[in-house]
Amino acid sequence: KAKNRGGGRVEYFELFREDLSADRIALIESVRSGLENGEFVLFYQPVFLLSDTRMVGVESLIRWRRQPFDIVLPCDFITLFEETGMIHALGERIIREGILQAKSWKKSGWDSSFRIAINISPVQLLNPDFLDMVVRILDENSVSAGEIGLEFEVTESRPIQSENALNTLVRLRELGIRISIDDFGTGYSSISLLRGFPVDTLKIDQSFIRDIRHDRNARSMIRAIVTMAKSLGLSLVAEGVEFEEERIFLQEIGCDLFQGFLWGHPLPPEEVIEFYRSTLEKS
Ligand code: C2E
Ligand code: MG
Ligand code: MG
Ligand code: MG
C-alpha cells in the first residue's frame, strides 16, 4: 500500500508502527526498568590452554536476571538492544563492569598473563564515540588494557567492513586491546575478512566443534583453519567444547585455547576465584 503511494517515508512509518506491537513495547519497557534496576549482569566462562590445561582467562557473557526469578540469555534480547540503539548504553556498562571486575581479580592474585574477553556488537563499532568511551573507562580505573589482558570479541554477524569500524579496531589494538573474531567460520566472508583486518585471535564457532566426533569434513575444516591461522600468526580459541574427544582432537592439531561446558560453564563473578583455585589444585 505504502509503495503505491510512492513515498519511501510513508512506508518507513508503516513498518515502524507494525514493528511496535504491544509485546514489543512491553518488552522495551521491561528492559528499560531492568537496566535501571541493575538486572543486567555479567557471567564469566573460564578459558583454558589446550597444551597444559591451565585456566588462562574468562569470557564475559551478559545475563538478564529478570525479576522475580528467571535468567534471560542474550539471544533473547541483544537484537532488541541493537535495533533500538540501547546497545550503546548497555555496551558501555558491560565494558565498565568487565574492566572493574578484571582489576579486582588482578588484585586478588591471579596470573599476570590472565585475560578477559568482552563481547562487542558490531553496532557499537559504528558509534563514533566508542573509542573515547573505552579510553575514558580505562583512565577512570587507572588501568591499561595490557595490565588486565583485555580483549574484545566481535562477531561477523554483520559485515564489519566500514572504514570507521576498521579504524576503531586499529586504534583499540594500539591501546593494547586484543581483537578476536567470534563465531569464526559462520557469517560474512570469513576468509576475505582476514586480509588486512586488524585481528589477533580467531574463535572457531561451536558448530564446527559439535561435528568433530562424527564428521570428517568438520575435522578437515578445523585443521585447515588452524593451519591458516598459524601461518597468519593468529591465535585460536575453540568454543563450545563439550566432549573429551573434542578436546583431545583440538590439542593434537595445535589449537591454542578452548572453552566449553566440558570444563567450565559461565559462572557468576563471585564463583570465579574459587573455580580458578580449584583448577590449580587439580593440576
Ligand atoms: P558467543 O560470544 O559466541 O558466546 C558463546 C556462547 O556459547 C555463550 O552463550 C555460552 O554460554 C555458550 N557456550 C559456552 N560453552 C558452551 C558449550 O560447551 N556448549 C554450548 N552448547 N554452549 C556453550 P550465551 O551466553 O547465551 O551468549 C550467546 C551470544 O550472545 C554470544 O555468543 C555473543 O554473541 C552474545 N553475547 C553474550 N554476551 C554479550 C555481551 O556482553 N555483549 C554483546 N554485544 N553480545 C553478547
Ligand atoms: Mg564471544
Ligand atoms: Mg562464539
Ligand atoms: Mg555466538
From TrEMBL:
Boundaries of every EAL domain copy: 24-280
Recorded coiled-coil stretches: none
Domain of life assignment: Bacteria
Protein name stated in the entry: Putative diguanylate cyclase/phosphodiesterase with PAS/PAC and GAF sensor(S)
Species whose genome carries this gene: Leptospirillum ferrooxidans (strain C2-3)
Organism placement in taxonomy: Bacteria, Pseudomonadati, Nitrospirota, Nitrospiria, Nitrospirales
Residues of the full protein shown: 724 to 1006 of 1006
